[in-house]
């Protein structure tokens, strides 16, 4: 599949990149595996010294460039629970008059080992309920995903319980690097396109 065309830093027809971090609202979920997508958005906002603010689309949003002259970003965290993330995403696309090809969704992924990221454009939801709801709400899977590996639970533990728990002490040691890698991937997708980012991160 063709890599999405990088956004121009000045062309109004291109508009900003909408980057959505999936997760659940509230401090009780903030440090769980399911919220790693929102951790990545916090890292991106920190790089650009951007501040999240309440937005009319039922999300908190930070807007701006992460580097001088670089692509413009709208970083968004839905205020809804994971399984109903699609409504805010659809509203954000309409509000900013963006095509889904300018949407990057960052989310946890059970089927990828911890400390690994995988990047893709298009396709199905892969069993991820947040992605499933986004596809249903916007009517297409034609958007880019940054899939952050959290790994499957050991033994017969339930996957639903696994993603709603915090990271292990060993995982917490490596978590900042994983989050930084995913943030780097978002930046490279926006500046260079998907294929160069895949070549960089999938080779690890």
TrEMBL record:
Keyword Cytoplasm recorded: yes
Entry annotated with the keyword Nucleus: no
Residues at the active site: 34 (proton acceptor)
Site (Stabilizes the basic form of H active site to accept a proton): 108
Binding site for tRNA: 29, 81, 83, 129
Function statement: Hydrolyzes ribosome-free peptidyl-tRNAs (with 1 or more amino acids incorporated), which drop off the ribosome during protein synthesis, or as a result of ribosome stalling.
The protein's assembly and partners: Monomer.
Family: Belongs to the PTH family.
Record HAMAP family: Pept_tRNA_hydro_bact
Name used for this protein in its record: Peptidyl-tRNA hydrolase
Source organism of this protein record: Leifsonia soli
